[in-house]
Amino acid sequence: MIYRANKADIAAWERAKPCKLILNKALAKLIAMKLHRSWSPQQIAGWLMRTYPNKDLHVSHETIYKTLYIQTRGALKKELQQCLRSQRVMRRFKHATLKGKGLGKIVDAVHISVRPPEVADRAVPGHWEGDLIAGSGNSYIATLVEWHSRYVMLVKVASNKTAAVISALINQSKKLPDELYKTLTWDRGCEMSNHKEFTLATDIQVYFCDPKSPWQRGSNENTN
Fold first, then answer.
1. Is the four-CA dihedral 200, 204, 210, 214 of positive or negative sign?
2. What tens digit of pLDDT does each residue of 129-169 get?
3. pLDDT at position 101, please?
4. How many domains does the chain have?
5. pLDDT band at 39 (very low <50, low <70, confident <90, very high)
C-alpha cells in the first residue's frame, strides 16, 4: 500500500474535533477581551468557570494557547499573541518551564480541599491568598490578597529562597491582629517549602492549590 501524504493530511483534518472557539463566537469574544486586558489564559479559564454556570462558556487554558499558537482560522487573531505576558513566537512544551523549579514537591502540603468552608463563602475576613512575583534585578515581592475585603498587602522579599520568603511572611503576619489572618492559600512554588515553619511561628495554616491551577487562588492571580 502506497502512503499518500496529501490524502493522509486531508483525512486527519476531517477526523479532527472542531475548535470550540470557532463554534462559539461569544466565548472567543470574551477571551479576546480579557487577553487585551493582559489576562493570562489560566486566569481567563478560571474566571469563566467562576462567572458562568453554562459549561458552553468554559474552556481550558491549553485550548486558548493552542488556538493562539496553532491559529485555527477565524477563532482568535494572531495579534493577540502580543497580549500574552510571555511574548514568544512559539510555545514551549508545558513541562519545560517546571524543570528544576521544585513545583509540586512540597512536603506535608495541606490540600486546598480541606480548607474551612467559610473561606470559599467569603463570609468572614482573615483568609488570604499569596504568591511570589519576580521583578528585574533579582527583586521579589510577595503579594497577599484577603478574600473577604480584597485588601492587598505587598511584602518585599530579599530572594526567592524559602528561608527569605518565610521570614518575610512571618514578619508581615505580626502586623495584623490574629482574627484578621487565619489561613493562607499558596501555589506549589518551592519558595513555600518551609511552610511548616511559618505555621509554627504564626499559627496560620497554609493550604496548597493543585499543580498548575492558578484559578484556585483567583483573587491573587487577578491582582497580580
1. negative
2. 999 999 888 899 999 999 889 899 999 999 999 999 999 99
3. 42
4. 2
5. confident
In a domain, 99, yes or no: no
Note down the domain range covering 170. Answer: 112-223
Residues 81 and 157 in one domain: no
Q: What is the pLDDT of residues 3-38, one digit of tens each?
A: 565 666 555 545 545 567 667 788 888 888 888 787
Whether residue 150 sits in one domain with residue 67: no
Q: Is there a single domain that holds both residue 58 and residue 128? A: no
Final residue before a domain boundary, out of 91, 125, 158: 91
